Fold this protein.
Amino acid sequence: DTEVTQTPKHLVMGMTNKKSLKCEQHMGHRAMYWYKQKAKKPPELMFVYSYEKLSINESVPSRFSPECPNSSLLNLHLHALQPEDSALYLCASSQDRTGTLYEQYFGPGTRLTVT
Amino acid sequence: TQLLEQSPQFLSIQEGENLTVYCNSSSVFSSLQWYRQEPGEGPVLLVTVVTGGEVKKLKRLTFQFGDARKDSSLHITAAQTGDTGLYLCAGLKTSYDKVIFGPGTSLSVIP
């Protein structure tokens, strides 16, 4: 099973709303990632969790708040977003972060629209 | 400056034709991955290459890692409409402690 699931599939929110994106994997992977992707561009790394601890924050604005409740779950809490934050948000996981264990498996993404 | 470059940026070909996509860098990577992404979906891992000079085949797709581990190519034989998508290469640079993505090659296979 190499499946990463993400909910919701689509999300429309106003600039004053608070919402959360969820990601789950049951592959026993110990690293999980959030990426943001604009149309026809590569994914941009936002956050990395390794063994449930935040390892990398790519200078992401504080209106995005990640959370890793356990080794299988990853959340991204959204608050006071801007229209330019509209994008496809991808979650990924990897067995670890060394050598070939760094192979990342992506979820289908959440299409976020901020109005 | 992009750490990983891909060429061509866009490619439109007829079904049945062959094509090659390139991923180049001036830096050495400890491993390199190729992904295919369809619109509105997440990238799907196709292959990981680790050893310089390594060649891997996945049905009609052939992947090669350069001897110096600075570049890679993806060759598709007899392209099909199902090959349409964004092809991304991604390299692991140990000193960066993260995977670096190339800008992608958008492939359109026309019936």
Chain A is about 0% helix and 55% strand. Chain A has a mean pLDDT of 94.
